[in-house]
Amino acid sequence: MRLLFCHDGPMAVDCNGNAYPQTFTEQVLSRYYSIAKELVFFTRTRLIDPDETEAKKVNMEKLTIVNSPNLSSIRGIARTCEQPKFIIYSRDCTHQEGKGNLAR
Length: 104
Description:
Elements: E1 2-13, H1 26-33, E2 38-47, E3 63-67, H2 74-79, H3 83-90, E4 102-103
Parallel strand pairs: 1-2, 1-4, 2-3
């Protein structure tokens, strides 16, 4: 099963797509892996230089980061009203029957 985790973020990523989360450590992610084989993070991202961060890179083998528009403000919501649904489905983040997996 693939689990979709929506988070306001932002999550630090490098130009190769590797994630350097400050709060989601391997230990925290392992809790989610106990209920799902794959984890998709739908979150805002910020580009970083991996040489300039103290955060550790997480194992990306079972983790996918999908960049979210800013949905924390009225302006961000108004600009991207249909975009989140398109992003999620265009990244094939759905179950085989076509129903999305959602966790809160």
